[in-house]
Amino acid sequence: MTNPYVPPTRLESVTVILPVVNETVSLRTTVETIRHVVKRELIREFIIVTCKRTTPEAMAVVEQLQKELGELVVVHEQKMPFLGGAMREAFNLARGSHVIMMASDLETDPKDVAVLIAEAGKYPEAIITASRWQGGVQFHGYSKIKLVCNWMFQRLFSILYATRLSDLTFAYRIFPTKLVQAIRWEDFRHSFLFETLVKPLRLGVPVKEIPSTWRARTEGASQNTFFRNFEYFKIGLRTRFASKQTLLVPESASNLQPKKELDAKP
Ligand SMILES: Nc1nc2c(ncn2[C@@H]2O[C@H](COP(=O)(O)OP(=O)(O)O)[C@@H](O)[C@H]2O)c(=O)[nH]1
Ligand SMILES: [Mg+2]
Hints:
Spore Coat Polysaccharide Biosynthesis Protein SpsA, Chain A, binds guanosine-5'-diphosphate, about 270 residues, binds magnesium ion, 8 helices, alpha/beta, single chain, seven-stranded mixed beta sheet
């Protein structure tokens, strides 16, 4: 227990993680929008995570962005597999006091990065997460059947975790960097995105929601498949009943503050 987790007392700068497979214009728009809405000195870096499947067209945009923005862009080719592997490696490379997890396909509206940062400035010890269910149904281009399944899943797990949060699976959030480096992660597939909320909830980390609109991508295709959604149940249930110490890497003692009432009102 030599390296206890100490929650940050202020937001100093943010690392934005952008995993990329087949995004070109969407990736560029994401980076440019964030640079437009966030003060330069607040952005520690963009970590663009590529993999063997990243297309040559996407790679060309990544290299161009690196040329234009210099040290602001860190390009990392992942060694661990899938989207979870990409995020986990980026978590360990992040140098900002806070880290933003999002996509580069414009399904995570880059304008809202400014809102995430402003809220994290007010609650630096908390996770601020985007919700597609707050302030009405904020899904565009999502099938009705998926919408119903999504709603039922959210309700089930909000009861299990006794939380008023309305969206536990939208992978658009800001975390204290030290927190994501202290947690012992398990999943590699898309269910990792859900793991990044349930483990902190189980550890009593405060979580606050902001509303955000989800729009189906117009470029490239998703890497997820419908049947992979069952993996979400596994990590959600296992974590709910796990002992807290097993959720942390061994050297990170649980020095987590008691949960504050930051959950969004329904
Ligand atoms: N580096 C990397 N990026 C990935 C991987 N899988 C997905 N992504 C990216 O992560 C983001 C979200 O993934 P996506 O496939 O759109 O998932 P969905 O929105 O949940 O259907 C997109 O920008 C993808 O290009 C992966 O294995 N490695
Ligand atoms: Mg997507």
